[in-house]
Amino acid sequence: MEFDGIDERGHAAEELHAALQASGVVGTWDWNPVTRRVRYDRGAAELLAGDAALAGRELEFDEAVAGIHPDDLPWMTTEVQRAMRVGGLVLAEYRAGMLSGQPRWVLSRGRVFHDPHGRPVRSTGILIDITEGRKAEAGYVVAAPDPEQEAPLLRAADLCIALHAAVAESGSEALRGMTDRLLFQIGREIAQVEREASRH
Q1: In 153-162, which positions are buried (b, 16+ CB within 10 angstroms) versus exposed (e)?
Q2: Per-residue pLDDT tens for 24-57?
Q3: Cα distance between residue 28 and residue 12, in whole Å
Q4: Which of 13, 99, 191, 198 could bond to 24 as cystine, CB 3.0-4.6 Å?
Q5: Model pLDDT for residues 167-199, shown as the tens digit of each residue
Q6: Backbone angles phi, psi at 86, to 5 degrees
């Protein structure tokens, strides 16, 4: 459907992307620790790999982290590997966007899934731009294996990320738009909680 020469679906997608950026949610990622390959959406590809055109492709590790600050990459890689062994919720704050010329502090919030033998097989999550409210100089990585200790909003984010990935595989643009909007709202509220916590 077109309205005044503009494709309505494309326009809605652009508006959603702008709203996500305004709220601080800048991207999603899906990491396969077995193959060491990662798939980003457009926002995550721009920040972490340095090229939005890499969105949707399976990237090798070195290509996938090209946009992360070189001072943060070594410790973050070590800590993320440790968090992958623990499993569950993983939070990390670090600097990215180095290749785009607009370095940003990002909060990466995701979940590590293990197979029945306790081996990590998948990790998915979202990126939130926290540059504006960031005060500390050092980044961190935290793993929390017990989902019962998570706040309801964080559990909702996990479910939405999984739903978002499944819907993307289905190819339904209508459902993709709905899950994008839900992810946007959850991300916005997580960002608000993070901002309030940083003030205390």
Answers
A1: ebebbbebbe
A2: 668 899 999 899 899 999 889 999 999 999 999 9
A3: 19
A4: 191
A5: 777 778 788 778 777 776 777 677 666 666 655
A6: -70, -45
Identify the helix (H) or strand (E) that includes residue 3: strand 2-3
- Output the CA–CA distances (angstroms, integers) from residue 163 to 112, 125, 175, 195, in the order listed: 15, 12, 10, 26
The residues near 121 (Cβ < 8 Å, ≥ 6 apart) are 32, 33, 34, 113, 114, 115
**pLDDT at site 56:** 92
- Give the confidence band of 3 by pLDDT, cuts at 50, 70, 90: very low
The tokens for 151 are: 């706040």
Taking the C-alpha atoms of residue 114 and residue 198, their distance in angstroms, rounded to an integer, is 31
Does pLDDT of 23 surpass 60? no
DSSP β-bridge partners for residue 91: 109, 142
Packing angle, helices 173-198 and 152-170, rounded to 10:
150
User: Does residue 109 contact residue 130 with C-beta atoms inside 8 Å?
Assistant: no
C-alpha–C-alpha distance, residues 112 and 81, integer Å: 11
Query: Of 167, 140, 147, whose CA–CA distance to 78 is shortest?
Result: 140
